[in-house]
Specification:
Structural class: alpha/beta
Strand order of the largest sheet: 1-2-3-4-5-6-7
Shape: globular
Mean pLDDT: 93
Largest sheet: 7 strands, mixed
Number of helices: 11
Radius of gyration: 19 Å
Distance between the termini: 10 Å
Number of strands: 14
Order of helices and strands: HEEEEHEHHEHHHEEEEEHEHHEEH
Helix content: 25-40%
Length: 319
């Protein structure tokens, strides 16, 4: 039993909106905050499907982390104009999902160069343009394009570095977690890590394109950095506790499902379905990772079961 990929992406979008109603009190959608001098964090509005964004000031221009959906890109541009007259020179796509890079044409139109790890372009070739053409978002349709605009530049050697005499940004790929192209942006002087959806702060994990077994390893690589602030792909910004919780969530999820498989349980014995849709599960996780457990948890259990039982990353299985 499985949903097709379009159904999963649509369902995840609905879950993000529902999760908005359950986020803790520090969530401030649409807030645009200067966290350290010249570095702003914008918390995305989940009711609009928007991701989080970071704006980094360099000597002669600005660097933006994630293109967002087109409407999210326009909202961010409006906020940028309130704090800086410098042009946006670069936009980094942390991965290929629409809420992080469908806004690319908005940025390139104003002269920015979009770029990403090569795996992002590879994922676009794997999944697009079908998802783009299936979307019913008005902000996507009004662009009148037949496919998403890929990043204008890609890199394969990690880290890829942008720096001047005022700031250094390191863009890295640590492995396959949320997608095959997950990119991180790290500011060593400010000790800020921007994670994309490899690390989120709350029940916002979509794992259909992921590698659940390798996900904790990717987070472990990020944890080797000297970090004070973590800017996640979704949910409020925070510190290293976001990385610890995200890593532990996937370890606990995988261990719990693995134990049931070892006990001879079939998928239908641990996940309750309505048609092909997972609606409930017998699996529970410890309180210290409950923040990452949301409405899609039965689906996450089912996907983890398939990854373990078929010995292939979830993203390599039909979805």
């Amino acid at each position: 039993m499985r949903l097709n990929r379009f159904g999963l992406v649509f369902a995840f979008g609905l879950l993000l909106m529902l999760a908005l109603l359950k986020t803790n009190g520090d969530a401030q959608p649409n807030s645009f905050t200067e966290v350290v001098k010249g570095v702003w964090f914008r918390e995305g509005d989940l009711s609009q499907g928007h991701c989080n964004n970071t704006v980094i000031e360099m000597k002669d221009g600005l660097v933006v982390i994630d293109a967002n959906f087109p409407s999210g890109a326009r909202a961010l541009i409006a906020d940028i104009k309130k704090v800086s007259s410098k042009p946006v020179k670069y936009v980094f796509d942390t991965h290929h999902h629409g809420d992080h890079m469908y806004g690319n044409p908005i940025w390139t139109k104003i002269g920015a160069v979009t770029f990403a790890y090569q795996g992002v372009d590879d994922e676009l070739k794997r999944y697009e343009p079908k998802i783009w053409q299936a979307t019913d978002r008005p902000d996507v349709k009004e662009l009148h394009l037949s496919a998403p605009e890929p990043p204008k530049q890609t890199f394969t050697k990690s880290p890829f570095i942008i720096e001047d005499d005022t700031r250094r940004i390191e863009f890295s790929f640590f492995g396959w977690a949320h997608t095959r192209g997950d990119g991180f942006a790290y500011l060593p002087k400010e000790k800020i890590l921007c994670t994309g959806d490899a690390a989120v702060n709350g029940p916002y994990n979509y794992i259909g394109d992921g590698n659940i077994g390798n996900w904790p390893n990717v987070i472990a690589q990020a944890q080797k950095l000297d970090i004070l602030f973590v800017f996640p792909g979704h949910g409020p910004r925070g510190g290293v506790e976001i990385l610890r919780g995200q890593k532990l969530f996937f370890e606990e999820l995988r261990n719990a499902v693995k134990a049931e498989i070892k006990n001879g349980k079939k998928l239908e014995q641990i996940v309750q379905f309505e048609g092909k849709t997972p609606k409930g599960t017998t699996i529970t996780l410890p309180d210290n990772v409950r923040k990452w457990v949301g409405g899609d948890f039965p689906g996450q259990v089912a996907t983890t079961y398939r990854e373990l039982s078929q010995n292939k990353p979830a993203g390599d299985l039909p979805h």
